[in-house]
Design the sequence.
């Protein structure tokens, strides 16, 4: 067996969804422009604190224009993680839109705080 990544998938044969609807959710002009990754690290914990965790999470997302970040089940995130995801990464990837969803109160507080801080720093740069 060769070393590498293994991907498993499961498809329900009795779905009422149409493939055109699925593709329409994530594409424009026949290109994938949107994605919705879940904010999870394969069960290693549901708290995110470091910049390196944020960079690993964001790796590959620059290929999409609209990214919905699903925080379902995430209990807490740190200031450095938020700064990397919501200030540093967007600055390095202009034109990309990050939208956080399904946040608990602690996660939402940190993201709002981080976004406010990012706006302050951007205003200082002008």
Sequence:
């Amino acid at each position: 067996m060769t070393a590498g990544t293994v991907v498993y998938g499961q498809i329900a044969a009795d779905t009422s969804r149409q493939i055109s609807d699925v593709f329409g959710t994530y594409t424009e002009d026949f290109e994938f422009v949107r994605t919705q990754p879940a904010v999870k690290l394969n069960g290693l914990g549901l708290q995110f604190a470091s910049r390196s965790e944020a960079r690993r999470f964001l790796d590959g997302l620059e290929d999409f224009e609209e990214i919905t970040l699903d925080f379902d089940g995430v209990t807490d995130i740190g200031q450095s993680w938020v700064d990397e995801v919501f200030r540093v990464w967007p600055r390095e990837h202009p034109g990309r839109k990050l939208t956080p969803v399904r946040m608990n109160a602690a996660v939402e507080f940190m993201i709002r705080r981080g976004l406010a801080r990012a706006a302050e720093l951007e205003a200082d740069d002008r």
Notes: The domain at 19-125 is CATH 3.30.750 (Transcription Regulator spoIIAA). The longest strand covers residues 66-70. The chain has one domain: 19-125. Helices lie at 19-26, 51-58, 79-92, 105-125.
